[in-house]
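Q: What would this complex look like in 3D?
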Amino acid sequence: MDINYSETEIEFRDKLISWLDEVLPEITESPGNLNRVALREYDTAWQKKLFEAGYAGVNWPKEYGGQGLSPTEQLIFLEETTRRGAPYVGMNFVGLLHAGPTIIACGSDEQKAKYLPPILSGYNIWCQGFSEPNAGSDLASLSTKAHRDGDVYVVNGQKIWTSYGDTADYCELLVRTNPDEKHAGISWLICPMNLSGIDIRPIKSLTGSTEFCEVFFEDVKIPVENLVGEENAGWKVAMVTFSFERGTAFISEQIGAFYQLEELARLANELAAESGTLDAGIKREIGELRAAFLALWALTKRNVSQAEKTGVPGPGGSVFKLYFGQVKKSMCDLALRILGEQALYREGKDEATSLDLVTQRIYTLSLSIAAGTSQIQRNIIGERILGLPK
Amino acid sequence: MNLDPTDEQLALVDSVRAVCADYFSSEKLHQLANDFSPEIAKEIYEPGWNALLELGLFSLVTAEDKGGVGLGFCEAALVFEELGRNIVPGPVLSTFLCGLLSKDDILNGAIDDIALFDDSRKYEIVASIDSTAISNPDLVDAVLVLDSPSSSLDNASIYYCETSGLKLTSQLPLDPLTPVALAEEKINWKKLADGEAALYLKKVGCVLTAAYQTGLAEGALNLAVDYAKQREQFNTPIGSFQAVKHICADMLTLVEVARAAVYVSAVGLDEECFDSVGSEASKTTADNKSNTSFSAINLDDDLSAAKVMAGKAAEFCGEGCVQVHGGMGYTWEADPHLYLKRAWSISHRYGSAGYHSTSLAETLAN
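A: Here is my prediction, written as structure tokens for the whole assembly.
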């Protein structure tokens, strides 16, 4: 066992740090989640900057615009960018963290060549079209239909909780191509969001932002070449998407949590200075949270070093996601208790790595729902890891 | 970076598992739980102890040219994890630490009285010089403390006392596998050493206790899962009910989180202890560390995190295992209470969760 970084990894970190020190002072503050057009502009501008400097897609293949480096170097990239307060992945989330990796793992060479480079350069934004009004936790019961008509699939139905649906260029879309089968009747399509017949209606979430949408499909014609994997084998492709979504997509948020906890300790000390002493119970709670975050960081290192061998994160992602959500919620709960009256107002923007702990507490309600509820994660752990009966 | 055991390390764990299967089976543990008298201990416990001794457990990290096995703390952590999985009782860790004191290169010269230590004897380490409760009183030849009167870490000392001179009264123990006696008079400690050695042993004790706790947690989880697959109610295995399945999933989650923290701190221990001897290689490691930003969190933080999380995992899984077993879990004959009581009985060792949490908060504030 070894937790050291190799020479080349250290060199990578050093170069990255100097580059960040050079460019970050010029970066303005994010316009925030409520201004969707400006946010897209902002998030993609940062991605473009990364691309031009040779830091986009650290562990993506070189031939598609990536850097061809290891998952460990990607981890270093996330560590340093988060630590130095670089802009959050934001609207590039779906493309960079699960649609792109899924296409790398399951897409054809043509699809990789066409879709991967514009994700890395910040030219294209992706959204996720998985859930439906009647297919949430039971996702495989989805009913948005696609029937083949010559060289197109004709799609009819409705998606919901489509993150970045309002600004995206492409959608990773799960459709039913065989009504007689459940899991074996699903296909994974790349859907351009500018096709006619698509109607997008933003949903205001309880954070106040509109980052997800309802999307209606009426006779939308998607070219057959946009099928990823085999027809009716989309569930397998979706499982790959999930493993990235649960296994690696939360890493920068996790790193952000270290700094949020530091911020919380600072706040607690500040308030303690006013009142005399820091309550021993609160101190201990902060320490327990730190223990949990350190252990989760160890787990991430373990998962990343395993992914280096297998290419795709294992079901351990469910373990990480389940526990991370719990710990981050506990941290934000403690923050509200420490803040007292100061918790009556919000300062931060709706970003997963913001230091505004009031906004964070509201946002963390999503952690046990999005990307599979905590109940579904526990089913996955129970059935797929522990082998308990369905 | 790699946090998975190698094939050689897994083979070592297998050999420990084989010893445990022979000498510390559920049946044997229950015999001890029913009567841990010196006679039964001699018949049931001693053969297992000797098998562990033969395996080299008490000189696992001692250099080969000193007659040891020449492995590191990663291997030791994996071994203690396996011992925990099998609820192996007795003064195993304390005696392992005393082995370091008498054989280890790093502690060479820390104490003068090396003759007090040899492989035919067993040792127990208690929390402070004011301790009166002695675990495993009939098994051990001597008791030690790794602490100072003020319990200040900078000024730790090692104290020693032979058990033959103590007036002890047996108590009804919390954990039937950990007999306890109270010393009737204040113990007359002999100071063996000051300084670094005590600190070093405390760190090792902390990581290996956490490894043992992780093993306990996983053992309890495995037992609960096996039971949930077999036991039927409402005409179906209870493990198919989410109310039961989700307890098991939460148990596994804590086990995996704790295990990762334990492995990272064991690697850290290896680096601090074996690479600090001044070789070129170790210098590179130290230089690298200063360069790796917050991932180079210091060993003290890592081992505190491991102890907090492994303690939580052991207690949660022990209790979860009782709960999944229902009425059967509340019986003396079933195994679940052995995991939980063992978890409780070692939770304070080498710093309680409260102690380590507080110190983690303090390093954050500074």
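A: To summarize the key features: Chain B touches chain A through 60 residues (CB under 8 Å). Strands of chain B lie at 123-126, 133-135, 142-146, 157-162, 168-171, 180-183, 190-194, 232-233, 236-237.
Q: Very helpful, thank you.
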